[in-house]
């Protein structure tokens, strides 16, 4: 299954009030088709050369310090983000995801396993490091041995996992439940 299909399938199954964190240009059209709130730390995507204010229901927000009240969402999509994070930033972002999810809320997580060097992933002018050490390139390959203890440590239990195809690499899609 492709990563966008996995995200859309999970959102259509679990629904409710939906947050799409690190939405970039909302490639799965979660804001348009599902009414999701789309949240990203930047308001412009230099790779796609588009303003994110053109994305439906867009709001600026840091994944490591989400600007939403506790227990505000039923479903949260975090796609193609954790691979950009060092472990501590990933832990912060997952803790924030857990905080804003309602009891038994679902986290739909998609992660490519991409170990290519940064200069192969992007042009030099697109190699950027942001707050929390988060980069525009994929810096962490999240094996289950690294990811699962992190997820359970912040309160998530795994409901479903399957391989995902990204074209340039393989990856994983996980449906996790917030156990409160």
Number of domains: 1
Query: Which series of helices and strands comes N to C?
Result: HEHEEEEEHEHHEE
% residues in beta strands: 25-35%
Q: What overall form do the CA principal axes indicate?
A: globular
- The tally of beta strands, per DSSP, is 9
Can you say what the CATH homologous superfamily is? Vaccinia Virus protein VP39
Task: State the end-to-end CA separation.
Answer: 30 Å
- CATH hierarchy class name: Alpha Beta
Give me the number of helical elements.
5
**Proportion of residues in helical segments:** 25-40%
Mean of all residue-level pLDDT scores: 95
User: What would you report as the Rg, rounded to the nearest angstrom?
Assistant: 15 Å
Topology (elements, then pairings):
Layout: H1 3-14, E1 18-21, H2 30-34, E2 37-40, E3 44-45, E4 50-51, E5 58-60, E6 73-79, H3 87-100, E7 101-112, H4 118-121, H5 144-154, E8 156-165, E9 170-178
Parallel strand pairs: 1-2, 1-6, 2-5, 6-7
Antiparallel strand pairs: 3-4, 7-9, 8-9
Write up what this structure looks like.
The model has no long low-confidence stretch (mean pLDDT 95). It is globular, with a radius of gyration of 15 Å. It is α/β, with parallel strands linked by helices. The protein has one domain: Vaccinia Virus protein VP39 (Rossmann fold, 3-Layer(aba) Sandwich). Strands 5-2-1-6-7-9-8 form a seven-stranded mixed β-sheet, sandwiched between helices. It contains five helices and nine strands.
Brief digest:
The protein is of the alpha/beta class and 180 residues long. Helices cover 26% and strands 29% of the residues.
């Amino acid at each position: 299954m492709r990563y966008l299909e996995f995200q859309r399938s999970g959102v259509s199954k679990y629904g409710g009030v939906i947050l799409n964190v690190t939405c970039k240009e909302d490639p799965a059209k979660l804001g348009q088709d599902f009414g999701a709130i789309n949240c990203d730390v930047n308001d412009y995507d230099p790779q796609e050369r588009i303003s994110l204010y053109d994305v439906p229901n867009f709001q600026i927000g840091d994944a490591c310090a989400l600007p939403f009240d506790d227990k505000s969402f039923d479903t949260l999509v975090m796609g193609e983000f954790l691979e950009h994070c060092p472990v501590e930033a990933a832990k912060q972002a997952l803790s924030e995801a857990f905080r804003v999810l309602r009891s038994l809320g679902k986290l739909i997580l998609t992660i490519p396993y991409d170990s290519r060097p940064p200069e192969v992933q992007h042009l030099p002018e697109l190699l950027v490091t942001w707050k929390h050490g988060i980069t525009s390139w994929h810096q962490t390959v999240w094996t289950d041995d690294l990811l699962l203890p992190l997820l359970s440590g912040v309160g998530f239990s795994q409901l479903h996992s399957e391989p995902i195809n990204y074209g340039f690499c393989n990856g994983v899609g996980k449906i996790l439940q917030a156990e409160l």
